[in-house]
Each structure stands twice: as structure tokens, then as C-alpha cells.
Amino acid sequence: MDGVFFGLAAKKGIMSIILIVVGILLAGLIGLSIPFLTLGDVWSHVQNIFVYQIKNIGPVFAAFPIVWIIGFAVGLWKG
């Protein structure tokens, strides 16, 4: 069940990130901007987070039981 809940949370988090990026793009198209925040800055920060997580979570993620991974996949799929 933990995997299902984490999968659901991950899917919702990814959708939130996508909507934030779309909102920033739309704001830029109509001429609105957030001072000191550009899409390039946001994108580079997101890439840095992913690289950091991949480097640190790799060995830990391999240690999870297969049932948790299956639950996570089901959560992403059904969420």
C-alpha cells in the first residue's frame, strides 16, 4: 500500500510541476513576469534537483522490495 500512496503522490507532484511551468510560460506570453525568476532559472533548478536525486537515491532505490515498486507503478497508473 505504501507504494500505491507514493505513486499517487508522485503523479500529483509531477502534474503540479507541469502546471507551474505552463503557468510561467503563459504568463511570459502575455507579458507578465516574476522578478528574478525566469523559465530558464526554473528549468536549470529542476534539472539540478533530478541529477542530485538520481545520484543519491540510486543505491537506496535498488534496496526496496519488488512489491513496493509494483505498488508505486500501480499508483502512478491508476492515480
Question: How would you describe this structure to a colleague?
Answer:
With 79 residues, the chain is mainly α. It has a domain at 45-79. The protein is built from 3 helices and no strands. The protein is elongated. The two termini are 13 Å apart.
Question: What's the helix count?
Answer: 3
Overall number of strands: 0
Overall helicity? over 70%
β content, as a range? under 5%
Apparent shape: elongated
Would you spell out the secondary-structure blueprint of this structure?
Elements: H1 2-29, H2 39-62, H3 66-78
Provide a compact summary of the structure.
This protein is an all-alpha fold. It has helices at residues 2-29, 39-62, 66-78. It has a domain at 45-79.
